[in-house]
Amino acid sequence: MRRKNRLEFLWVLGACVLSVGLLSTAGAQSSGQGAPIENTMPLADYQKVISQGPQKMIAGLEVVPHSLKGRFVGFKLVRILAHSPLANSQLILVGDVILSVNDHALERPDQFMRAWEALAKAKRLDVRVLRGDVRLHYRWTLVP
Distance between CA 57 and CA 75 in Å, rounded? Predict the structure, then answer.
């Protein structure tokens, strides 16, 4: 795979992993760099998204690689289409850089696949983002 196509592929895949956690804003608290910003998400909603696979997420997002000081750090969310599960998100915003999902980096396809597989068995979802110069940590606890 050519380098440019590989990077585009990775960004899109990273974005779809991220999308799983952004469907719910229940329990959102004010931002901070220390403790996670706690939220809840119904397990059934989470499982529905996971069962649909990444293709549905890919269709609703545009992301680009983001580097700091010449080093890849994550995927920057450039655009959210109206039909995306993120369209009404109040937590993850256009311009945010997705750093990791459940402590999995998303730089390479194998990292994405490990993250996606881990999401199927997860009890919670942790998404770390960079908004400007501020690092945020969102956590969704899956509830019955």
Answer: 14
> Domain 3-143 belongs to what architecture?
Roll (2.30)
Angle at 136 between CA 132 and CA 69, to 5 degrees: 45
Question: What is the pTM (predicted TM-score) of this model?
Answer: 0.76
DSSP per-residue string spanning 61-123: EEEEEEEETTEEEEEEEEEE-TTSTTTT-SSS-TT-EEEEETTB--SSHHHHHHHHHHHHH-S
Q: What is the pLDDT of residues 27-76, one digit of tens each?
A: 444 444 579 999 999 999 888 878 887 777 667 889 899 999 999 998 89
> Among 19, 50, 41, 56, which residue's Cα sits nearest to residue 118?
50
Cα 24–chain centre separation: 13
Residue 134 forms beta bridges with which residues? 131
Tokens 């999995």 label which residue? 104
